[in-house]
Design brief:
The complex is a heterodimer of chains A (about 350) and B (about 290). Chain A is built from 15 helices and two strands. Chain A has about 350 residues and is mostly helical. Chain B is mainly α and about 290 residues long. The chains are: A mainly alpha (about 350), B mainly alpha (about 290).
């Protein structure tokens, strides 16, 4: 990324951080939608990374739930601050991913997908069963809002209870999303990114030229789950409570959809996909009972007519818009602009 | 203990029927039918209307269910999956399409049939006693019907021309094409049969425990577990997986009445898959 683009991106983020609260700051619901979309894009970035190494991951909800519970337990039982619990939740989710990842990452394709699908359900059942830690079906309630962060008497982050919490959460979500996608961009454009792409193309071939496939895929799974855990912990700050059903199978499937909608071949795919789909979802709110139906139709239509995601739509004459390296599936797909 | 055994066999019959449909579609098309649980629920509702509301005889309800689901499955294949599969780029596309169809079917079922839990009058009143175990007659009827459907399916796959064609496609799609099997038409038939099996399982269930629109995802997860235990795309594996899950569930609910049963099942499954990723009957791969 050239310095010029970096400055532009930083300016855009700053404009977003200032502009949105100015425009809709007095409407908590609207700003809440944007907050949720940012946080969900962090979680779906983890799913995207798994797609990037060629795995279909439908269990991200499980790791978000783990993160949310880890943060809740850290805050209520251990008395830690939210700002410590947030990264801790990511680490706990990543640890879980390492433990589960070694056996299940040996599975490929739909087999991996089927196991991950049941992971979400397993996480919900665990949350219900281990009552002493998780509070069982009642969950953990009354989590305080994130407190202030002070270093040598200098207030870096104000107490969320003393400022407008909606705007504070919005800023936090935006910064998390920016950090996530900056990190993801960095990973994809590093040596690690090349290794991940090699896994996605052909694991056996990668293994034969000395790539430690077993370790790398666990690394990817851990990074993805870390993001899931962070996102889950953020939702703890929003909802101030956690239940076994906070993240369900349906959520896991939606997270996968966000990635698809944006486009699996683009680093910023999950970001675009989450925002478009989530905001569209809010617009459909008036149609109440038909909402999931319309959502399903959008999804099926996408698969039939726009299989490479929204970012594959390019205006004629514009340059390559994807941030990441070009994944090989672009070669396989017959797209109109490639025929010329 | 006998009760556990009897319940296990009863559950196993139903589960095997569900898993058979899923494995058929997977074996033929390479599509993981996410909507399988929703097809099952749809079958339950069709039976509820034909048998419970209209009061027509139960066999007729079964026929109506099978027909409805055959049409649904065939339409799914013709309008959606075939297009995406023909483009043939990646596994993910058909996976997501399948998830989309599941969501579509679930929301349609919710809109059309509502969210109430529906039951139908019992097929046969009374309870049989086998040793120390009790088994309602209606469960026996369901069990026998499920077993008959499974046997009928196997005979169909082995003895008829269509069955042979379907098996040929599952073994090697290109070779089957070269031998003159109409792959597209048979694929559609396979999808229709798979959907019908799911629907029939649903119409058997509605007699025992009723049906509601929220059951689908959970049934799909169960079906995935069975298929993973047995090995995807293998008929014997699906039946074995169904009976193993039925027995495990029956045992589990005897000793752990809460949600722990499935938690342990998930853990056991992950450990099992670490040792044998292709399932009991599946061919080794990768």
């Amino acid at each position: 990324m050239s310095p010029r683009i970096a400055i532009l991106v930083a300016a855009a983020v700053l404009a977003w951080l200032v502009g949105v609260p100015l425009a809709v700051g007095d409407r908590p619901y609207d700003i809440g939608v944007l907050t949720t979309a940012s946080a969900l894009s962090v979680i779906s970035a983890g799913v995207w990374l798994m797609f990037y190494i060629g795995r279909i991951h439908i269990g991200q909800g499980a790791f978000a739930l783990v993160g949310q519970y880890a943060a809740a337990v850290a805050i209520t039982k251990l008395g830690l601050s939210f700002w410590i619990a947030l990264p801790l939740a990511g680490l706990v989710a990543a640890l879980f991913a390492c433990a589960i990842g070694f056996p299940i990452l040996r599975l490929k394709g739909v087999y991996f997908a089927m196991v991950t699908l049941s992971l979400t359900e397993a996480a919900r059942l665990s949350a219900q069963s281990f009552e002493s830690v998780t509070g069982g079906p009642r969950g953990i309630l009354n989590i305080p809002l994130p407190g202030a962060v002070e270093v040598f008497g200098l207030t870096l982050v104000p107490d969320f209870g003393e400022v407008n919490p909606h705007i504070a959460l919005f800023c936090l979500a935006t910064l998390l999303a920016v950090a996530t996608f900056a990190a993801l961009y960095r990973i994809v454009n590093s040596r690690l990114g090349w290794l991940f792409r090699s896994l996605q193309q052909n694991e056996d071939l990668a293994s034969s030229i000395g790539v430690n496939v077993a370790r790398l895929r666990v690394v990817a799974f851990a990074i993805g789950s870390f993001l899931g855990g962070i996102g889950g912990a953020f939702f703890l700050a929003v909802q101030q409570s956690v239940y076994p059903s906070s993240f369900q199978v349906q959520d896991s499937i939606y997270l996968m959809l966000y990635c698809f909608l944006g486009g699996l071949g683009y680093v910023f795919g999950p970001l675009v996909g989450t925002f478009v789909l989530f905001i569209a979802f809010e617009f459909l709110h008036g149609l109440n009972e038909f909402q999931p139906l319309i959502y399903a139709l959008i999804m099926i239509g996408l698969m039939v007519w726009l299989p490479n995601g929204l970012l594959s739509l390019r205006l004629p004459g514009s340059g390559p818009g994807d941030g990441g390296g070009r994944p090989p599936w672009r070669r396989w797909l017959r797209r109109p602009e490639n025929r010329t | 203990m006998e009760q556990v055994l009897v319940n296990g066999i009863y559950l196993g019959c139903q589960y095997a029927l569900i898993a058979l449909g899923l494995t058929l579609i997977f074996g033929l098309m390479g599509v993981l039918n996410f909507a399988h649980g929703q097809m099952y629920v749809l079958g339950g509702f069709v039976t509820y209307y034909v048998y419970g509301v209209l009061g027509l005889p139960f066999p007729l309800a079964l026929v109506a269910t099978a027909a409805t689901l055959c049409v649904t499955g065939a339409l799914f294949d013709k309008l959606l999956f075939r297009r995406v599969l023909r483009r043939g780029a990646r596994e993910e596309s058909s996976m997501l399409l399948a998830a989309g169809t599941a969501l579509l079917l679930e929301s349609l079922i919710l809109i059309v049939f509502g969210e109430k839990h529906r039951g139908v009058p019992s097929l046969a009143p009374g309870v049989a006693r086998i040793g120390d175990a009790f088994l309602p007659y209606s469960r026996i009827v369901v069990m026998v019907l499920a077993a008959a459907l499974i046997v009928g399916f196997i005979v169909f796959m082995r003895q008829t021309r269509i069955g042979r064609g379907l098996r040929a496609i599952a073994q090697d799609r290109e070779a089957a094409l070269l031998q003159g099997v109409d792959v597209e038409r048979y694929g559609m038939l396979g999808f229709a049969f798979g959907a019908a099996l799911a629907g029939l399982a649903g119409s058997l269930l509605v007699v025992i425990s009723g049906v509601n629109s929220g059951l689908g995802t959970w049934i799909s997860i169960k079906a995935f577990i069975m298929v993973m235990i047995g090995g995807a795309g293998v008929v014997s594996g699906a039946i074995l997986g169904g009976f193993i899950l039925g027995m495990a569930e029956s045992l589990g609910y005897r000793f752990f009445p809460g949600g722990e049963t499935y938690l342990m099942l998930f853990v056991a499954m992950i450990v099992f898959l670490a040792i044998r990723p292709q399932g009991l009957m599946g061919k080794p791969w990768g």
